[in-house]
Amino acid sequence: MSNDDDATRRRSARINLRLEPDVDEYLRRAANLEHKSLSAFMLDAAFERARRTVEEQSRIELSAVEFSRVLDELDRPAEVVAPLLKLVERAGNRRVPVT
Fold first, then answer.
1. Ranges of each domain in the chain
2. Rounded to an integer, what is the distance from CA 72 to the centroid of its chain?
3. Is the pLDDT score of 28 beyond 80?
4. Mean pLDDT over each residue of the chain, to the nearest integer
5. Are 38 and 27 in contact (CB under 8 A)?
6. How far apart, in whole angstroms, are the C-alpha atoms of residue 55 and residue 49?
7. Which residues, at least 6 apart from 40, have a Cβ–Cβ distance to it below 8 Å?
8. N or C: at which end does the chain have fewer Cβ atoms within 10 angstroms?
9. What is the pLDDT of residue 47?
10. d(Cα 50, Cα 52) in Å, to the nearest integer?
11. How far apart are the C-alpha atoms of 1 and 5, rounded to whole Å?
12. Where are the alpha helices (DSSP H) in the chain?
């Protein structure tokens, strides 16, 4: 059994797309230029975009001034937030789901 057979078996999920003919032609041309199958080309491109999107949404970028302000806020003593304290007291020993 070849490595290609193993890879095909591991990849069982499918995505079907409907494309306009000019988009299909352009994608096939790009895939051909990179010596990849259309599926491999599209999967590589989509995965890279997904990775960037998740990474961008997971990262907070601050200017030096903003970062300094955050550090200042973290150094301040904590304040009691009355409504939150009441909620915790009402919950008692009950488990409060975190969503």
1. 15-91
2. 30
3. yes
4. 87
5. yes
6. 10
7. 31
8. C
9. 97
10. 5
11. 6
12. 3-10, 21-33, 38-58, 64-75, 82-91
Q: Say if CB 50 and CB 56 are below 8 A apart.
A: no
Instruction: Give dist(CA 14, CA 83) in Å, integer.
Output: 48
| Cα–Cα dist 18/27, whole Å | 13
DSSP one-letter string for 23-46: HHHHHHHHHHHTT--HHHHHHHHH
| Residue 4 Rama label (left phi>0; alpha psi -120 to 50; beta) | alpha
Look at residue 5 and give its three-state secondary structure. helix
Tokens of 43: 């999967």
CA distance linking residue 67 with residue 30, whole number of Å: 42
